[in-house]
Automatic annotation (TrEMBL):
Keyword Transmembrane helix annotated: yes
Pfam families: PhaG_MnhG_YufB
Identification of the protein by name: Potassium:proton antiporter
Source organism of the structure: Brevundimonas nasdae
Database matches in PANTHER family: ANTIPORTER SUBUNIT MNHG2-RELATED
InterPro entries associated with the record: PhaG_MnhG_YufB
Gene Ontology molecular function terms on file: sodium:proton antiporter activity
Length: 113
């Protein structure tokens, strides 16, 4: 099967998933720019990137499964890797910023539990 033989339902689904996933990633980037403090900014790109990435990878799975006529699991591995590493990076960045702010005595630092 070539790209020209792709069924209309698959093409529409791939385009819809890719556009919605890209829009969510863009929304996360806008949140990164618009929010004021580090602690507010750190969440928007993480959430936008995770959900946006999942939808774009789902579009890729549909595309390659339809074109190749067999299930293509590569994208699932990419999704698992990104889903595991993105929140871990968020936690490490937030803890490092919190430690820095507490040692420097910043005013907008969240208080201990």
């Amino acid at each position: 099967m070539t790209e020209a033989d792709l069924p209309a339902w698959a093409a529409i689904l791939v385009v819809a998933l890719a556009v919605i996933g890209s829009a969510l990633s863009l929304l996360g980037a806008v949140g990164l720019v618009r929010l004021k403090t580090f602690y507010e900014r750190v969440h928007a790109p993480t959430l936008g990137a995770t959900l946006g990435m999942a939808l774009v990878l789902l579009a890729s799975i549909v595309w390659f499964t339809t074109v190749e006529r067999r299930f293509m699991p590569r994208e699932i591995l990419i999704g698992l890797f990104l889903t595991v590493t993105t929140p871990v990076t968020l936690i490490l960045l937030a803890r490092a910023a919190l430690f820095r702010d507490r040692t420097e005595g910043a005013e907008d630092t969240p208080r201990k539990g």
